[in-house]
Amino acid sequence: MFILSLTYVKPLGEIDKNLLGHRAYLDKYYNAKKFICSGRKNPRNGGIILCNASDQDEVKNIIKEDPFFINKVAEYEIIEFEPTKFAPGFDQFINLPDSNQQ
C-alpha cells in the first residue's frame, strides 16, 4: 500500500486550471480499485492519496497520468507501507494473509 503525498509547486490558480483533469484521473483509479481515499491537505498546499498498487513501478506509472504531474504543478512523494493493523472492513482494500491481520 502507498501514501501519495502531493505538494503544489505552482500557485493555486495553476492548480485550479488542472483540477477537472485531476478529478477525472482520480475517478479512473477509483474505478480501477487502485485509490482508496484522497483529499486536500489543510492548509491547501497539496493533497494525499491512499493507493493500493502492487509495487512502486505501478505507482509511478499511475502518477504519470495525473494532469498535476504532467503539467508540473505538483510533486509527488511516494511512501510505501504494509498495513498490519486496521479497522474492521478495511481488509477489503488490501491483500494480506489472515495471519498478518491483528
CATH superfamily: Dimeric alpha+beta barrel
**What shape does the CA trace take?**
globular
**What is the second-level CATH architecture?**
2-Layer Sandwich
Low-confidence stretches: 96-102
Number of helices: 4
> How many whole angstroms does the radius of gyration measure?
14 Å
**Number of discrete domains:** 1
CATH class: Alpha Beta
Distance between the termini: 17 Å
Helix content percent band: 25-40%
As for the CATH topology, it is Alpha-Beta Plaits
Could you explain how this protein is built, in words?
The chain has helices spanning 12-17, 19-31, 56-63, 67-70, and strands spanning 2-8, 35-40, 46-51, 74-80. The chain is α+β, with helices and mostly antiparallel strands and 102 residues long. The chain has a single domain (2-82), classed as Dimeric alpha+beta barrel (Alpha-Beta Plaits, 2-Layer Sandwich). A 4-stranded antiparallel β-sheet has the order 2-3-1-4, with helices on one face.
In short:
The chain is an alpha+beta fold and 102 residues long. Helix content is 30%, strand content 25%.
Topology of this structure?
Layout: E1 2-8, H1 12-17, H2 19-31, E2 35-40, E3 46-51, H3 56-63, H4 67-70, E4 74-80
Antiparallel strand pairs: 1-3, 1-4, 2-3
Write a concise keyword list for the protein shown above.
single chain, four-stranded antiparallel sheet, 25% strand, globular
